[in-house]
């Protein structure tokens, strides 16, 4: 099975092999994947993203093949993740912009000099290093006012579950991609009065099942992506939009991810 890695800032991952197909998620720089199949015209490749197992199609021109050995080394090395909103790296001696949440092939064991060359002087942390709520909150606020984008995972366009996934990933925790998957993770908080800052709060809208997620803050507030990444009031009924004076989402479940 062929392996690949994202060596562009952002790559759209689509439901079907077409430029007009729905974007279901994105690859950020450093995301690696397995190739599941190639379209008959060889213009598209269907991939399975290693971090969350999500599948979709990317443009074959944006596919960067790597060896099995390189792929396996990525899985075992303690790489670093970019914590700057945007940053510039030198990739093969040429500047390339990357965004918050990009994975950097920088580790204690530098085994990739033969294949690729990198230089990075920005802010980063170890990918697997677990951090506390205040750190998670600081990362979440870096996305504040990012516009909502279905399938998006960057500060320039992000959806609700992409937002929670990236914030927790940077903080050191692994979440699945979609709201329907994230609600199955962690420990349930049965009583809303026992909720703690950093808990994931899930919502339903007009009896359509669970379709929205956000991160509980202190002082009965929640940060979530709805139109844009914003902070709203939260109580046992759900999210209250003060500017519209209305409840926008009904609370369904609370899950604890952070240890």
Please write out the topology.
Blueprint: E1 3-5, E2 10-14, E3 23-28, E4 32-38, E5 44-49, E6 55-59, E7 64-66, H1 68-76, E8 80-82, E9 86-91, E10 94-99, E11 103-104, E12 118-120, E13 124-126, H2 133-142, E14 153-154, E15 157-158, H3 160-171, H4 179-182, E16 187-188, E17 200-204, E18 210-216, E19 221-226, E20 228-235, E21 238-241, E22 246-256
Antiparallel strand pairs: 1-4, 1-7, 2-3, 4-5, 5-6, 8-11, 8-13, 9-10, 9-12, 14-15, 16-22, 17-18, 17-22, 18-19, 19-20, 20-21, 21-22
Helix pairs in contact: 2-3
Structural features:
single chain, 259 residues, mainly beta, SH3 type barrels, endopeptidase fold (from Nostoc punctiforme), 2 domains, six-stranded antiparallel β-barrel, five-stranded antiparallel sheet, 14% helix, globular
Explain what this protein looks like in three dimensions.
The chain is mainly β. It has two domains: 3-126, SH3 type barrels; 133-256, endopeptidase fold (from Nostoc punctiforme), CATH 3.90.1720.10. The protein is 14% helix and 41% strand. The protein contains four helices and 22 strands. It has a six-stranded antiparallel β-barrel with strand order 17-18-19-20-21-22. Strands 6-5-4-1-7 form a five-stranded antiparallel beta sheet. Strand 17 and strand 18 form a beta hairpin. Helix 2 packs across helix 3 (160-171). It starts with a strand and ends with a strand. The relative contact order is 0.12. Mean pLDDT is 93; it is low at 109-114.
